[in-house]
Amino acid sequence: MASESVSEDEAKITLGLLSAIEANSKVTQRSVARDLGIALGLANAYLKRCIRKGLIKVQQVPANRYAYYLTPQGFAEKSRLTAEYLTISLNFFRRARSECAEVFCQCDRQGWRRVVLAGTGDLAEIATLCANDAGVELAGIYDPEATESEFAGLPVSTDLEAFTPFDGIVVTAFRTPQESFDALTQMISADRIAAPALLGISREPPTFME
Fold first, then answer.
1. Where does 6-165 have alpha helices with state H?
2. pTM of this prediction?
């Protein structure tokens, strides 16, 4: 069967579901939803889709419970998605590292010596690897939704003022880049905010037609 074209998120959820069932045939939809960080209804929809595509078979067990098993086709799809996801991840890492390095070179050219990252996550971790090479000091990570006080060896704060004085900010909020940039412009000048191109941030405020 030819594989369907799916988004990265769809591939990630499907891979997570197949992996969970391979590890435990008595896994529940609720536990899958919790582990993958998705809604219960979405987990149910993906499970039904995988059953319909012949990737998973289901059997009723005592106490009105269900057991799920990967079919040979399911094992093959899991292997394919694993390889695909690793390729996507590697390509992302290469692009992110290259663009972060360029951003910090720009920071250096502009005389920014002390910089704050805005947003924890994979991109922030990659950014920390590039900052030292450009001679830029990272003051810490500003994240208004942070629940931990440290990430990737840097202090994290929900208060931007905790890192003053600083010369500029590099946006590393991968999931909400535009929202983070827009919020930051309410606190400091936009010309003190930089970001890797892959985030697709627009520096122009939106215009609305009447």
1. 8-23, 29-36, 40-52, 72-109, 122-131
2. 0.66
